[in-house]
Amino acid sequence: MLAVWFLEGCLVGFGAILPGVSGGALCAAFGMYKPLIDCLAHPFSALKKHGLMLGMFVLGIGAGFVGLSGVAAWCLGRNAPAVCCAFAGFIAGTLPSLWHTAGTHGRTHRDVFAGVSCFVLLLAVFFLLGRGSLDLPKSFGSFVLCGVLWGLSLIVPGLSSSSLLLFFGLYEPMLAGIASFDFGVIVPLGIGLSACVLLLAKAVDLLYKKHFALVSHAVLGIVFATAVSIVPYGRMNIPCASAVICGASLSRGLEKMIANKCKA
After folding, report:
1. Quick check: 22 and 229 in contact, CB under 8 A?
2. Domain spans of the chain, in order of start
3. Does the global pTM surpass 0.70?
4. Which of 109, 117, 175, 259 is the most core-located residue (most Cβ within 10 A)?
């Protein structure tokens, strides 16, 4: 079980580096989003309940985000469409369980409408982001902004910080800085990330408590939009299709493994 949580964290950290993939969407896909929000909003009580699971998961995120940033750059250089397809498969494989979880407190037409609306809205945002760019100077403040965007992508499932960083011209400098352990990049990145997450976590936790079904269906729509948007439809081939299938099979296998461990 510990290895599974660590592996899921690695996938979230690795996937969050990829353009178009949301770290928050991956957290939600693996069932870790709500425990993470609980921990950030109410650290003492949540750590007693989820401490071991979240500890391994966060360690995995760190390993995937920092340790594998160079691997991510290499994979993207070798076959970016196949990598994106693999993560689309990871996300798609979790949709049935997300649908089930969203309906555990009941399901109304309003909840389903919220999911569909978020799906359409996020696709429109992705479309607009892909139509332009803006180069910002590479400075301490710019890398703090990178951290804020990463934090938003964790707190707001479906928001792809990588896509935003590409738009601002900060994606490649940030990735290179992480891969080379450049503290001029890592320190401001950490400051922005921590500040964003700590400030917004309580607000999201309150929304879940008051409107669980509505928020859960909205998150489901966002996660689905993420999977749809990162598929490179114009460059699909047999390796890409195989990557989608392998990604979906892996995420389903991880879910079944965790379910069996919980039953045991």
Report:
1. no
2. 2-263
3. no
4. 175
